[in-house]
Amino acid sequence: MNGHDELRMMLGGYALGHLTPAEEDRVRAHLDGCAECRAELAEIQPVADRLGLVDPAAHADRPLPAPDLGDRISRAVADEIEREGRDDLATARDRRRRVARWGAVAAAAVLVAALAGGVVGRATVPQAAPVPTEPIAVEVEDGGVTVESAALVAHTWGVELRLVGEGFADGETFRAAFRTTGGDLVPAGEFRGVGDASMSCFLQSSVLREDVTEVVVTDDDGALVLASTLADG
Ligand SMILES: [Zn+2]
């Protein structure tokens, strides 16, 4: 598994076509022998493909990504710009590498990184109308957790879970995922518990609403925290 960590970082750039031919060859050679990276690429590629087809003029109609995720990427971009400013000798190749690195975090992050970082200079305009949400019934398995509201948003690029609740153990990492009609469990991101305080999470996936049959949130140990079996989308 030589170079796995480094090559895994390049998958976002690979999916978006941002790598040099030599780098693409390295990634391809690694993919041949690494099922983990192949699985991650399979997850990232549909979002990257959709980005490639995006018409810049249509961007104004695009729903903005979750506010917290956007903030995180914005900070990463700001940090990157600061680093670039300090490093006058950085080559174009280095810069391209850094851009590629942002893209590999997760499918949702690829989307945001490309909007915020990869397509620098393009303004995104908040959509005028509120998006329609679909309330879902949630079964809570973790006695400490209370769900105030849970809803899905069927975006054109994938489905989003909007979760408001409290009692998610302070400092613990929770992971959301969508079960597809094919039975696969596709990650929709993670969030950190803040204990008794109320928290809102926007968890996004490139899976389309119509292909989702179940929403699952698990804790640090992989134990089920809450689940929702969905009606047909
Ligand atoms: Zn690998």
Automatic annotation (TrEMBL):
It is found in: Membrane. InterPro entries: Anti-sigma-K/W_factor, Anti_sigma_zinc_sf, Znf_put. Residues 6-38 form the Putative zinc-finger domain. The keyword Transcription applies. Keywords: Membrane, Transcription, Transcription regulation, Transmembrane, Transmembrane helix. The chain crosses the membrane at residues 99-120. It is a single-pass membrane protein. Signal peptide: none annotated. This is Zf-HC2 domain-containing protein. It comes from Nocardioides aestuarii.
